[in-house]
Every structure is written in structure tokens, then in C-alpha cells.
Amino acid sequence: MDVSYPFTAVVDQAAMMRALLVNAINPDVSGVLIRGERGTGKSTAVRALTEVLPEQAVVSDCPYGCPPDDYERMCSECRERVDAGEKLPTETQRIRVVDLPLNASEDRVVGSIDLQTAVREGRPRFEPGILAEANRNILYVDEVNLLDDHIVDVLLDAAAMGENIVEREGVSVRHPAEFVLVGTMNPEEGGLRPQLLDRFDVVVDVTASDDVDERVEIAARRERFDADPEAFRADYREEQRALADRLRAARDRLGDVQIDEELLRDASYEALRQRAHGMRADIAVERVARSIAALEGASEATSAHVKEAQYFVFPHRVEGVAEMSFGEGVLSTGGDEEPEAGEEDDESDTEGDESLDTEAGGIPIAEGEDSYTVDRTAIEPTKDRTMRDALARRTPSRVDVRSGRYVRSRLQEDVDDVAIDATVRAAAPHQHRRTEGRRGGLVIEPRDLRQKIRERTARALVVFVVDASGSVMSGRQMMETKRGLLSLVEDAYRARDRVAVVVFRGEDAFTLVEPTRNHRMARDAVSRLTVGGNTPLAHGLVEAYRLVQRERRRDQDLYPLVVLLSDGQTNVEYREDGDAKEDAFRAAALFDEDDIPSVFVDTGYELDTTPDQIWTDRKAERMKRKRFERNLTFAETMGADYLPLVELPRDATLPTEVEEEEGQFA
Q: CA 223 to CA 192: how far, in whole Å?
């Protein structure tokens, strides 16, 4: 029984519903991305869309749902049948929403070998995947920002070419994959890769209603639907039917809708003025404006349609967008101010960050630095060849899970992920003997089975432990420490890692930012951080250690990286009647003992010298040498890689590899 929530019963999300309808009208509009916090009806609206989508003719026995009257858009099999003079069987189907699960393997997405056919007939046969099912339909990805990178690459390729090309496991297949990509995401869970974000012509940001009456109505409707879905759906049957008819008429009208060239010139001028990236904004505005006009029954797009189209098309492509009003169809900006490096519109503003930094009396790090430019750096280790169950997005690893990219095969005792191509190749030389006296088929024995070796990169947690004492955060040293920290946060953003920030100063340490994928929160919190007081280094390390241990208990596959930014000095003991230096070394040893990957960024390293010049000043030679050697020893005790802060060059790397036993963390 179909119990989907009626699309017309959704309350207070006019922009989101409008965007979905625009995509349903015009297949050339390359997808819609809906960004918003939990509980804003994103998934409900997308799934409810199916009942009002128009119908289309398809070849009934084609796995790709080819159009029977469009030879150019047919798959190769349908073309061969038409060329042979065969009349293709047809039927009418409603445009469907096809789900792409986050845990879907690459085989499931692009297609794979039909195992039964390979074993029974001894030949490879392609089994279509999700992209085949999505052809001429809507491909829906909930939490699209959490997709594995290799799946994102597959989607990008298919979206760009309109077809899926599979060359693997002894098969070479091309089939049409023209789909409208609909994604939903919670910005607090991180952003999208720019390459994927740009593939969405339409982006809508949704929030929960702040109107009491609307909130009461939403809750009441949901209560009625849960109590009696069929009765509730019956109340909206006529509205649903009317909307479906309206969509069908709009699709029929779309080809005749005109748009004045002067409006297109104005739209392109606005895209230039807003510094929209690439040409997709210009193209998308024209397509979306015509679709809106068709939805409203107009034969020509007007300036109001173009402005509304810009509301949908510009947010993720222009710099400095401050405010856009959907109700009035007006796009306005806050000027041409450059955003902070790596900043994306999809990250929500942080509220209440003032309470994060509870220590008073310090000096704000960001004071007088409004125009400061962050120099991007990288934490890019070499490829890790260690086999593991636990994964880290920052380190591409061979893994014993079934969702990674198939890279090669191996012989093992218990095979649970069969590499068809390697298995067939292993069995082929023995077929003459095995099939003697039998009819056809491929005979495979247990010794022929080969296991797939997959590779993927999973998410990591980067914990920044920041020395905010008065001695470190003074003068140029403060500027360089801030630059280094923000650069590393930016790198974590590009790697889509979670980040946390631990700060120590005065007499204690505290977690300034709990683990989050909202990197803007980390940047904003750091910019408002106050500094001053003593240097409780041991407290900061213990706080970070406890945070990592807590997160490991929550997620056994967690791959942590601790980045300590400090000059290595300390003057606050951790234990009662203890020694500050000894306590700091004891705390550092915890990370080495528990194999927690770490990096010590020495913020006290001479900023104007190189390693060869560090002792050129004879008067300061002894002090510099002593401090330098102390910090090297401290890094060794921590099991950390030592990296001077000096300018953090672009090719600086912070290795995250850690010795592990086969299949698990040591």
C-alpha cells in the first residue's frame, strides 16, 4: 500500500517545492540541492514528489527505460532492434525517484557482472545498476555530502556525459544515464566538493518555520497522517491530481516558451557582476526561467521569472551573496567582499559561539586582521598500503569492506566478495578437464575463487590542540600561529574531515569546538579566541587525549589525527606538587602509547631563519639549540612528526600513517 505523504500537504517550504517542480518540468535542469537542518521536511518533500510527476513512454522490456520515439537517446540494444525492423513494445510509466543509498558499492551504482550467467554459461554478462534504473528519472541522494569520493566521481562522469561507461571484469558497456540529480544535506555534517556542487543548477536553503501557527499546523497534519494515512491522503487527492495536470501541461508547454535576448544579456551581466563561477550560471538561469514560466502557464519568460531563477541558481556560484528574497523574486547582494578562503554558502552561521571561549581578559586573535588572507596548506600523506578495517578519508587505504573501489584481487581462504573476472580467469585453464562429458557451462571450484581488494578513503577526526598562552600568542608569532591553524582547518575542510579544537592557557584547558564537520564553526571560534596567561601544556594534551578516546568509543573505525600547535614551553603542573615539564612529557607519551597519529607544529621556531641558519647568532646559539633539541625530544616522546611553523610551505606534509596489525588498529 502506498503511504507516501502528499506533496501538496507540505507546509512552509514554498521555495523547496518550487525548485522540485522546476526540475520535474525540465529534464535539462541539472538537479536540485536542498540544504537544511534536520526536521525541515527535505526527504519528505522529495519522496512525496513521485505522485505528481508526469508520465512518459518507455520501452517496456528495456532495463534503461529508453524512449521508444527517440533513436538518439536509445541504448545500443534498442537501436539494434529498431535497425532490424522490430517494433519495440512500449508502456507508459510515471517518472520515478530512484534512491542511491550512502552505503551503495560502486558495483551496485554502475553495474557489475551477472554471477549466475558467468557460472552457468561461462561468459560475462552485464547486470545494470542504479544509474541504469535512474535513466530518464530522478536520482535521489539523501545526505549527498556524505557520499564516498569514488561514488561522487562516478556521478560526476555520468552527469557530464549523460551515459554510464563501464569497463571492468571483462565487460565493456555503455548505456544512457540521463537523470535529474536531487540531493539533500545537513550543512552541519560538512559541505560538498565544488565539482559536485556546481552540477546542481538549483540550490535551496531551508529552515524550520518560526511562525507558531505554521508549526502547529505542521504537527497537526503529521499527527493526522500517522493516525490514518489513507484518510489523510484522500483529503488531498484533488489537489494532487490538479498539480499533476499542471505539471503535465507545463512539460508540454516548455518547448514553446520564449525568453527575450535582452533578458538573457541582463542575466549574464548580473552573473559577471556577481562573479559567478564558469558558464553554468548563465545556462541555468535561462533553463530555470523558462521552466518557471511554463509552470505559471506563460508563453514567454519575464524579468520576474529571471530574478526568481537567479535566486535558485546564484547562491552556490557567486561570491558575497548576502540576502535573497524568494517571495519577491529579488536577488540582492551585500557587495563584492571576498569570502574567507574555502568558505561555502552551505555552512550555517554559528550562534552562541561567544560562550565557547569562557576565559576572560585575553586579547582576541583576530583583532585588526579583517583583511588577513589564509595561505592554504596541505596535510597529504603518501598512499597507505596497510590493510585495515578502519579507514581514514585522509589516507587512501586497502580495506576489507565491500563499499570501496575494486582495485585488484587476491587468493584467500574465505571469500565473501567474489572478484568475477579473476575467478573466471583462474577457472578457464581447467575447463577442458572439468567439462568432459558435460554440456556447456563454466565449472568453478572453491580453489578458483578470488577475493576483491577494495580501496576507499574514509573520514578522519583532526583535533587541533592550540597553545593560547600569552607568550605564544604575541606579536608576529601570534599572526603566524593563527595563519597556520586556519590553513590547517582549511585543509581539513577540503578533505571533508571532522575537526575539533582544544585550547590551553591560564591554569587549564578546554574544548573550544566539539568534533564537527562545520568548519566555519571552527574558523569563527578560533577568530574569537582570546589569549593570555600561563602555559598548561599537560592539561591541553590530556584534554585532547580524552576527547580522542571518547570519540573512539563512539566509533571504533575512527582515524584520529592530533595537531599540536605550541612552542613546547610549559609552566603549569598537572599533578599536585608535580613538575610542569615532567607532566607535559608524561601526557605526550599517552599518544605514543595508544598509537594516536600526531603532529607537533613548533610555533616557537625562528620565523626568519632556516635550519642551516638557526645557530648563526652566537649570542642566542645556546638557547636556540636547547629549545630546538627539547622540542624534537618532545615530539619523539609523543610519537609525533615534527614540523616547524616557518611559513608552512604548500608542499609541507603531515603524515598520518600509523603502524597497525592486519585488519585492525594496533
A: 34
pLDDT band per the 50, 70, 90 thresholds, residue 276: confident
Look up the pTM and report it: 0.58
Whether 517 sits among the annotated catalytic residues: the reply is: no
Q: How far apart are CA 176 and CA 135, in angstroms?
A: 6
Over range 238-262, report the average pLDDT: 91
For residue 385, give the 3-state DSSP assignment: strand
User: Cα 256 to the chain's mean position, in Å?
Assistant: 38
Q: Are 452 and 409 in contact (CB under 8 A)?
A: yes
Tell me which residue has cell 590547517: 488
User: Which one, of 38, 42, 18, lies nearest residue 348 by Cα?
Assistant: 38
With 0-12 / 13-18 / 19 or more C-beta atoms within 10 angstroms meaning exposed / middle / buried, residue 494 is middle
Tens digit of pLDDT for each residue in 293-352?
999 999 999 999 999 998 888 888 875 443 333 333 333 323 333 333 333 333 333 333
pLDDT averaged over every residue in the chain? 75
Give the separation between CA 632 and CA 358, rounded to whole angstroms: 32
Rounded average pLDDT over 480-503: 79
Does residue 644 carry a pLDDT above 70? yes
The catalytic residue among 248, 280, 425, 434 is 280
State how far the alpha carbon of 636 is from the alpha carbons of 98, 508, 585, 588, in Å: 52, 24, 10, 9
Q: How far apart, in Å, are the Cα atoms of 563 and each of 243, 485, 497, 500, 571?
A: 55, 9, 13, 10, 21
Contacts of 273 (CB under 8 A, 6+ apart): none
Give me 10's grid cell.
507540505
